[in-house]
Amino acid sequence: MNLILLFESDFIAGNLVRLSDRRMRHVLEVQRASVGDELCVGLDGGDIGRGVVTILSSDTLQMEVRFNKKPPPKLPLTLMLAMPSPKVLRRLLYVASALGVGKIFLINSRRVEKSFWKSPVLDPTIIRRQLIRGLEQSRDTIMPEVLIRPLFKPFVEDDVPNIIKNTLPLAAHPDAPEVLPRNVGYPVTLAVGPEGGFIPYEIDMFRSLGFRVVQAGERVPPVEAAVPFLISRLF
Amino acid sequence: MNLILLFESDFIAGNLVRLSDRRMRHVLEVQRASVGDELCVGLDGGDIGRGVVTILSSDTLQMEVRFNKKPPPKLPLTLMLAMPSPKVLRRLLYVASALGVGKIFLINSRRVEKSFWKSPVLDPTIIRRQLIRGLEQSRDTIMPEVLIRPLFKPFVEDDVPNIIKNTLPLAAHPDAPEVLPRNVGYPVTLAVGPEGGFIPYEIDMFRSLGFRVVQAGERVPPVEAAVPFLISRLF
Fold it and tell me: What is the DSSP string of B135-172?
């Protein structure tokens, strides 16, 4: 936790916040702060700044906070991620949020196991918790949007044409003839398939909408590593 | 599993292999192969090729195998990774192996929790299992070397000068003034700190040996994402 993300409900008066949850425990047990210490804080959806600890006991952290800096900019990226296994999804939400992805569509694909769509990880509370962990890691305050689209065809036909407007649309695919471009300097829409990849029909649909089908190299990284790997090349 | 990694002990005669473990179950339940199908196989430490299924039952997979291709080259990278938590280490061994890292030193740092060095994940059998999963994912056959170095100072003073010879030595550090170079086209030794980063004393030691101290950007990715992120930039 490199930033303590604060919400309106944490404020007890003016610029005074009081915490008694896992954020308090982190400050107490991991950061081992004391009264008078300055901690990095951020306001949900707003600026980042410093909090001076005024009270710290085993059940209360009180800080006087001041915000003075914009959070880091989001990546100019919309991620369309074929629904991964619950375990991998949980980690990817955290990682994508930390890397600065602003918008994530969880999409279907033939090779997505149907049971994944019934996973409790899709509960908005759990999604939000993972996104918050990512923001705390990378000192950001702007919650990414996560949109769940369990029907491939209507999503691709009806929504994708608008989503990709004014972006470079790319579909990552293991055996693509073209290699992922580096450092593109332009907004990107990136579709990432499931373990095993998109099926040919799906790749054809992306291609027909103008997507360039690209590979990351001779090796196929696991999805959880592919996302940071692809993002790092692109930006 | 995009490649079935085979060992000498799997051979029952000539080019005939018989499997009855999780590899067999994967072929049966995930790949859903049948007799006559061709599967991608690789020989531990050797070439990759194809295996034709000759017998497939609920407890036996038999294949006739032929090897005809070199595995993909390893990255020209030596990774020095501050010992992460057991959970993260397990994933990172898998990911680093899949990405083609050939040599990994697990090193100490002030901010590494002492208990991590007693984790069962450091058992050679468990390490090896994760490395094999990575090879199976990225169709490789050459086991990465994992070397455990729990004493920071003697390692850095006595071993690092030799390790970094003829490489570009880099230490990743959140607030470094210099930004990670892209696509370096040269062998690299990369030191990656623990959550919270190396302490100034450690960074100074790396610097005194000729390391360039570099950051990945304004955001600090979690260690598990930092490794693929950094590798993707560098190569």
Answer: HHHHT--SPPEEEEE--HHHIIIIIHHHHTTTSEEEEE
Q: Would you call B230 an interface residue with chain A, using a CB distance cutoff of 8 Å?
A: yes
What would the two tokens of residue A84 be? 């991964």
Q: Enter the pTM of the model.
A: 0.94
Residue B195: pLDDT above 90?
Answer: no
**Structure tokens given for A148:** 């769940």
- Read off the DSSP letter of residue A157: I
Decide if A191 contacts A211 (C-beta within 8 A): yes
Please check whether residues A84 and A189 belong to one and the same domain: yes
Question: What mean pLDDT is predicted for residues B146-156?
Answer: 97
Kindly provide the residue ranges of all beta strands, DSSP E only, lying in A11-111, ordered along the sequence: 11-13, 16-19, 38-43, 48-56, 61-69, 77-82, 103-107
Contact between B103 and B44 under an 8 Å Cβ cutoff? The reply is no
Work out the burial of residue B115: count CB atoms within 10 Å of its CB; fewer than 13 is exposed, 13-18 middle, 19 or more buried. exposed
CA distance B204 to B172: 13
Which residue, among A157, A79, A150, has the nearest Cα to A117 in the 3D structure? A150
Whether the CB of B94 is below 8 Å from some CB of chain A: the reply is yes
Cβ neighbours of residue A162 under 8 Å, at least 6 residues apart?
Answer: none
Based on the fold, state whether residues B21 and B43 are members of the same structural domain: yes
Q: Which amino acid appears at position A205 of this protein?
A: M
Residue for token pair 């499997």: B19
In DSSP terms, B212 is beta-bridged to B170
Q: Which domain holds residue B227?
A: 77-234
User: Across the strands, what pairs with B214?
Assistant: B172, B178
Among B100, B225, B227, beta carbon nearest to A219 = B100
Q: List CB contacts of B93: < 8 A, sequence separation 6 or more.
A: B104, B127, B130, B131, B134, B146
Whether B103 and B49 share a structural domain: no
CA distance B15 to B6: 11
Task: Write the single-letter amino acid at B162.
Answer: N
| Chain B residue whose CA is closest to A232 | B229
**Burial (CB count within 10 angstroms: exposed 0-12, middle 13-18, buried 19+), residue B207:** middle
Assess contact for A18 and A60: CB atoms under 8 A: yes
Choose the mutation target among B31, B219, B227 for the interface with A, i.e. most A CBs under 10 Å: B219
Residues A129 and A222 in one domain: yes
- B234 three-class SS: helix
- Does A200 contact B at CB distance below 8 Å? no
Q: What is the pLDDT of residues A185-219, one digit of tens each?
A: 999 999 999 988 999 999 999 999 999 999 988 89
Q: Are residues A51 and A95 in the same domain?
A: no
